[in-house]
Amino acid sequence: MLRILRSSDRAAIDALFARRSARLEEAEAVVRPILAAVRERGDAALVEYARKFDRLEGDSVRIPAEELSRQADAVTPALRSAVETAAGQIRAFAERQAPRGWMDEIGPGIRLGQIVRPLDAVGAYIPGGRYPLPSTLMMTVIPAQVAGVGTISACCPGPTPETLATAGLLGVKNFFRMGGAQAIAAFCYGTETVPRAQRIVGPGNIYVAAAKKLLAGDVGIDFVAGPTEILLIFPDGDPRKLAADMLAQAEHDVDAAAILLTMSAETAERTAAEVERQLETLPTAAVARRAIDDNSAIVICDSVAEACAISNDFAPEHLSVADDSFLDQIVHAGSVFVGPWSPEAAGDYASGPNHVLPTSGAARLRGGLSILDYVKIITVQQLEPAGLERIASAVTTLARAEGLEAHARSVEARFD
Question: Is pLDDT of 21 > 80?
Fold first, then answer.
């Protein structure tokens, strides 16, 4: 049964938030030898692990581009239309997010700016466990395509026909049947078959998270993902919709969390009852029930301000709020869904913003995956004699204050 707490019960709320902390130490110990084996033995080790963990039957983890095209040709019209709609939205949002190059004269003789360049190669990890996730393929590949990344690779330990068809529809050329720590190692170090990536993106299980954490010094990563979560702030609302949104998150994983903050005791009681009613007919109830009972709650707050403060402390992956008046009070969140007609499921698939989002409080530090993860912003400086002369005294004085005489002389040499 979904718990109902009072905001004054800080111990219970702290315990609720603490449940999100994933323990990676044990997983790190498991994945270390896998990472080392793939680094040292390349394809030989990768294929061994893929046969053991990913049900690989052949001699290569590569899925031929011809197979991706065949699956795309065989896809149902409904799924093709859905992929095209979602892909169009995701692409349009990524294009709108893209940073631009510019050069401006900010003063006499000083022109400053930036150029934007794509990464050379990225690897996208697509989970293949309880549910197939072609949506994650779109979310990780399309921004790379918009950015202009040269080599885009994707992997999945158990790709379904829908995932392979989506890869074909997107024009993906490098797709691999591999998962877990061995896939992360292959992207990080490269093998005879798998191109080395400069950045690895996409969510995964605890072993994927542990591998990304351990290899973060050798390869760029998006973030170390933990269990998924949603927090909703509604002073009151339709219990049926609120319960549906909570269950939409809870069905992802037994470790998922769904938390409603409300000012109405009646809304709390009716929503808890509605969750129970909807669970009775939910095909994924076995998973959702555990997430609801173990990790989720409704918290009755005294005010919107208090609810927003609790939310900022939680720093949720997904945040749903009653209307846009809440936005000025939101400081930490992965993605915000505003109003009763903005269900989180829309963002999972087709509204446009990325659904690969920071979890476990990482939203305090960064937002979700975006085109910025696939590009470099390179600053440019062009000074003329008059411009350098304007700042020369500041440069030489600061250089000598730091004991860097050659720095100062490199400026003065231009005026000798």
Answer: no
Amino acid at 367: G
Q: Tell me the per-residue pLDDT of 303-358, one tens digit each, with 9 for 90 and over.
A: 999 999 999 999 999 999 999 999 999 999 999 999 999 999 999 999 999 999 99
The total number of residues written for the chain in this structure: 416
Q: How far apart are CA 139 and CA 201, in angstroms?
A: 10
Any idea which residue has 């110990």 for tokens?
A: 29
389 token code pair: 């002369």
In 119-228, the DSSP E strands lie at 121-125, 151-156, 174-177, 199-201, 220-221
What is the pLDDT at residue 32? 97
For 224, counting Cβ atoms within 10 Å of its Cβ (0-12 exposed, 13-18 middle, 19+ buried), the class is buried
CA 257 to chain centre: 17
Q: Which of 162, 229, 318, 332 is catalytic?
A: 318
Give the pLDDT confidence score for residue 243 in this predicted structure: 98
Radius of gyration of the chain (CA): 25
Tell me, what amino acid is at 214?
Answer: L
Domains in the chain, please, with CATH? 3-21+227-352 (3.40.50.1980), 25-99+119-225 (3.40.50.1980), 384-412 (no CATH)
Is 318 catalytic? The answer is yes
Cβ atoms of 347 and 230 within 8 Å: the answer is no
Q: What percent of the chain has pLDDT over 90?
A: 94
pLDDT for 19 equals: 53
Q: Which of 162, 229, 274, 317 is catalytic?
A: 317
Q: Is 93 within 8 Å of 206 (Cβ atoms)?
A: no
End-to-end alpha-carbon separation of the chain, Å? 81
* 3 state DSSP class of 285: helix
Helix (H), strand (E) at residue 296: none
Using CA atoms, how far apart are residues 32 and 26, in angstroms rounded to an integer?
Answer: 10
Angle at 222 between CA 90 and CA 102, to 5 degrees: 65
Q: In whole angstroms, what is the distance from residue 105 CA to residue 291 CA?
A: 56
What is the C-alpha to C-alpha distance for residues 381 and 25, in angstroms, rounded to an integer? 45
360 Rama sector, left if φ>0, alpha if ψ -120 to 50, beta otherwise: left
